[in-house]
């Protein structure tokens, strides 16, 4: 019934927290930069290992060290990730209509 319409050819990515699959463009990408800090890669163009997360407060708040550690396969220092900052940035920078 009806045709399946795909918007563009977005590759799918999996949220590291809830494991749900979505188009890459619908997820937030976090990358580990050269200074060992995790930050939001708004345009998803940055090189390096990235972790994708749903733009949902639940997933962002649950993206704690354990998930980051798994995503980046290394231990990160306490200040590598600031959930509050990342969430504020994510919510303000994206029009996901939360
Ligand atoms: Zn999720």
* Helical run tally: 3
Q: Overall mean pLDDT score? A: 81
CATH architecture type: 2-Layer Sandwich
- Give the N-terminus to C-terminus distance in angstroms: 30 Å
CATH fold assignment: Hypothetical Cytosolic Protein, Chain: A
Helix content: 25-40%
Q: What ligand species are in this complex?
A: zinc ion
Strand content: 15-25%
Number of domains: 1
* Computed structural class: alpha+beta
Main sheet: strand order: 4-3-5
**Name of the CATH class:** Alpha Beta
Give the helices and strands, then pairings.
Layout lengths: L11 E3 L6 E3 L4 E5 L5 E3 L9 E4 L3 H6 L2 H8 L10 H11 L5
Antiparallel strand pairs: 1-2, 3-4, 3-5
Zinc ion binds next to loops.
Question: Which terms would index this structure?
Answer:
98 residues, binds zinc ion, 5 strands, alpha+beta, Hypothetical Cytosolic Protein, Chain: A
Description of the molecule:
By secondary structure, the protein is α+β, with helices and mostly antiparallel strands. It has a single domain, classed as YlxR-like (Hypothetical Cytosolic Protein, Chain: A, 2-Layer Sandwich), CATH 3.30.1230. The strands form two sheets. The protein has a three-stranded antiparallel β-sheet with strand order 4-3-5. Strand 1 and strand 2 form a beta hairpin. It is globular, with a radius of gyration of 14 Å. It starts with 11 loop residues before the first strand and ends in a 5-residue tail after the last helix. Bound molecules: zinc ion. Zinc ion binds next to loops.
